[in-house]
Amino acid sequence: MTQAIATQRSSEQADAIRPFPKVNVPEAELAELRRRINATRWPERETVTDASQGVQLETTQALARYWATDYDWRKCEAKLNALPQFITQIDGLDIYFIHVRSKHENALPIIVTHGWPGSVVEQLKIIDPLTNPTAHGGSASDAFDVVIPSIPGYGYSGKPTTTGWGPDHIARAWVTLMKRLGYDKFVAQGGDWGAVVVDLMGVQAPPELLAIHSNMPGIFPAEIDQAAFSGAPAPAGLSADEKIAYDRLQFVYQKGIGYGFQMGLRPQTLYGIADSPVGLAAYFLDHDARSYELISRVFAGASEGLTRDDILDNITITWLTNTAISGARLYWEYFGKGYFNAKGVSIPVAVSVFPDELYPAPRSWAEKAYPKLIHYNRLPKGGHFAAWEQPQLFSEELRAGFRSLR
User: Engineered SS bond to 160: which of 165, 205, 289, 362, CB 3.0-4.6 Å?
Assistant: First the structure.
């Protein structure tokens, strides 16, 4: 009897929602980061005048100069510490999350999932517009309770020590988390890896999940996805929108996802990005051509959407938590299973198409991939990191996308 009580108490303790201690990185770690940046051994510049060989030397050196001199990590710490941060154990792994409840009654609970190369930093700008819509052009009836977890192996979540923490496992864990927080009905949102996670939540279709929203929807028919991967010409009979999406996806497969193959096949080999801050920064900047264009111009003195501090907050949290490799293993867990293909989602889905996403999802394929499509909209601006780049537009999309469910 005593053993049974002890086991029950141990289980209850593991399931507990615990406050996460304030983030307070020792100054010595920040000094060591700056030392490593300044000690970077640089290669010669690229032999082309564009980004076709990768992240350009001028951009990387401008980033490094700012990172080592003017960047202030303490500002990011203050943003995180101003929010309610928690940790709980799910399936033996600590899961870090931010949880902000709205002051408005009947707020709709939403769990929002980041991607790679990412962290909860990507979603910080949407918290107030979602929880406090009346201050951002919305109405009280549009309010959300917001939960933003850190993917296992990323940021302040635990690092898996065994295999099996792929996006399907994460999808199930998020349902456990929301139920543990007392939510018996909720919605889910994701982009990048988060888009794969919410698609799989939609495939699993737990009764508590009312709908999902994606800004990188998995919509390609299997044969179209395979043709794009093979490098074949666009199939005959595609509409203009479908042809654009096909061409953009083919470009991603052929020239824009080298990191995905490296992490999908041999993530442990990437010791360089765990050892060199500038190596990590360059690797993170090389996500996709359109995002790189937006990011690189910031370090050339322009500004639109993301700032230099935005970029470095995301890189620095990965550096300080030493999660470059543990985050990379997510690609290994899911390699070859299909990021962009239709997966058989049966529940209601809202889709927002930002023009500079990896591909603009055509309505025709979205309707086939998601038979219960409740919202589809094409936005005038924004790219792959939509919540981070265009938080106002993104928040308005979530309000509109889920309004019919309230």
Answer: 165
Burial of 118 (0-12, 13-18, 19+ CB in 10 A): buried
Q: Given 156, 331, 339, 376, which residue is catalytic? A: 331
Report the C-alpha gap between 262 and 269 in whole angstroms: 9
pLDDT at 1: 43
pLDDT for the residue 293: 85
71 annotated active-site: no
Q: Is 192 a catalytic residue?
A: yes
Concatenating the DSSP letter of every residue in 217-246 gives ---B-HHHHHHHHHTPPPPTT--HHHHHHH
Based on the residue annotation, tell me whether 154 is a catalytic residue of this protein: no
Of the candidates 42, 124, 55, which has an alpha carbon nearest to the alpha carbon of residue 299?
A: 55
| pLDDT averaged per 10 residues, the chain (length 406) | 49 82 97 98 97 94 97 98 98 98 97 96 97 96 98 98 98 98 98 98 98 98 95 94 96 89 96 98 90 85 83 97 98 95 97 96 98 98 93 98 96
Cα(297)–Cα(275) distance, rounded to whole angstroms? 26
Tokens at 396, concatenated = 């308005």
Q: What number of residues does the chain have?
A: 406
Neighbours of 37 (CB within 10 A): 21
385-to-35, 118, 209, 357 alpha-carbon distances in Å:
30, 9, 24, 8
